[in-house]
Amino acid sequence: MIESQNSDGQAPLHCCSIVQHNYRGSNLVFLTLFSLIRNRNVSFVCLQDPPLFQGSPLRAPGFQCYVSNIFGFKKRVATYVNLSLARDFNYLCFSPTVDVLRLVLSRNDGRLVLGGFDSFSLINTYNRQVDGVNTVKAADLFINDLHPSLVVGDLNVHTLYTDPTRDMSSTERRKGEQYFRVAGLRGFIIINEPGVYTTTPDNINDIPSVIDYSLANRQLADFVKMWKTNIPHTGSDHAAIVTSITFAPYVTARPSPNWGR
């Protein structure tokens, strides 16, 4: 377990934002994104295909970086934690494969993290395709957690739910179903906004698509406040995605009744 230092009586966390982005190994994309989110009060940044220096992800001021503890392989994912959180939380970090990084958070003071739960899992993945085969198994990605869990990353699969206008091949449909069937059986739902593309290919003859996803399990779903791709272009062909979680169940505001009628 990686334990951070205690803070000096800071107020409990009420909301957090998670940014996910495929960097394509670019230093420029890395610098651009962290510059863009500098004033956004981001809690976590989940990178897929991060730029590396001497085999390790780059440092980001104000953030602590967690990577796979599997040695001898290229680091495919990295999760950056805002240092304001690192003072208040303990982190259990492990990787079932080099393409998945699972971070389990709990508070130093023993208080509840989210709702009635004392921990929260953030799973960051880069489901690469090697010779037409995906590198991450659905069973390694979607775990039957009893506490709130969020899976984010580049899954490299398609579904008509998020991309309803895509002319999907039978192979694409089958691959997507393999993942999202397991996700559904284990209580995860897609929180992407349907029809919002997450990648725009460099080749103008290729069409945009959705291969980057955020999925919340049933323990977390009511706490998801927002899912947006509202960060400006970074230079990657993937959009930077922001998921906001409020630490009280989120209910869409209803219009006030007109008592004068």
Count the E strands.
Answer: 17
CATH class call: Alpha Beta
Kindly state the percentage of residues in helix: 10-25%
| β-sheet strand percentage | 25-35%
Number of domains: 1
Main β-sheet, spatial strand arrangement: 1-8-9-10-13-15-14
CATH architecture: 4-Layer Sandwich
CATH superfamily: Endonuclease/exonuclease/phosphatase
Q: Provide the structure class.
A: alpha+beta
Give the radius of gyration: 19 Å
| Alpha plus pi helix count | 5
List low-confidence stretches.
Answer: 1-12
Average of the residue pLDDT scores: 89
**SSE string:** EEHEEEEEHEEEEEHEHEEHEE
Q: Largest sheet, if any?
A: 7 strands, mixed
Principal-axis shape: globular
CATH T-level fold name: Deoxyribonuclease I, Chain A
Terminal-residue CA separation: 60 Å
Gist?
The chain is of the alpha+beta class. Helices cover about 15% and strands about 30% of the residues.
How would you describe this structure in keywords?
single chain, 261 residues, alpha+beta, Deoxyribonuclease I, Chain A, 7-stranded mixed β-sheet, 6-stranded mixed β-sheet, 5 helices, 31% strand, disordered N terminus
